[in-house]
Amino acid sequence: MDGIWRELAPALVPLAEPPQPPGWNHVQMSELLGSVERRPAAVLVGVREGVDPRVVLTVRTAHLASHAGQVAFPGGGSDPEDRDVIATALRESREEIGLDPGHVSPLGFLDMFETISGYCVTPVVARIAEQAVLAPAPDEVAEVFEVPLSFFLEPANLRRYTMEYRGHRRPMVEFVHGGHRIWGATAAMLLNLLQRMGRA
């Protein structure tokens, strides 16, 4: 699977040139949110090393105020103490899934994405060591699971549909794997990854 890593790295925004707002979906979000300032956030699009590299995802707990029960990348809002978006993604990943930053090698970024909850998210793509141990924080994460990157690269696994939201028809994408429905912002970021790799 070395070929996947060779294909992935040049498709990303370089670490030395982090993306800047607005997000790639800014026009669409402006129809829903107006000009309200977006809060900075970051997520870790972590790919675990191995024979079949796997994307690490979480299921949010059912009691959370927002996005309860949804599949998400580990991540969250930036803190003033965070040096940069990579620091945010690593801090949140340690808090949510117990990921040791020493087992993470950032590779680059995807394009910024604006969420309906008012965040402008920077997706940090990184390699996760095969031996990394993950343990969900029960107050935030109900489950940690992994999906082969090759699954997302298969065009037949990308589903497109339209959703009505606040009077607007929004084009959406989703993936279904192992009983998990991956949709919303998480699926949109994965679509951005596929587009940057020339796979969608």
From TrEMBL:
Alphabetical list of PANTHER family matching this protein: MITOCHONDRIAL COENZYME A DIPHOSPHATASE NUDT8, NUDIX HYDROLASE
Cross-referenced NCBIfam families: PRK10707.1 (NF007980)
Cofactors demanded by this protein: Mn(2+); Mg(2+)
Residue ranges of domain Nudix hydrolase in the record: 37-175
CDD domains for this protein: NUDIX_CoAse_Nudt7
Transmembrane segments: none
Protein name (database record): Nudix hydrolase domain-containing protein
Keyword check for Plastid: no
MF terms in GO: coenzyme A diphosphatase activity; metal ion binding
Entry keyword set: Hydrolase, Magnesium, Manganese, Metal-binding
Superkingdom to which the source organism belongs: Bacteria
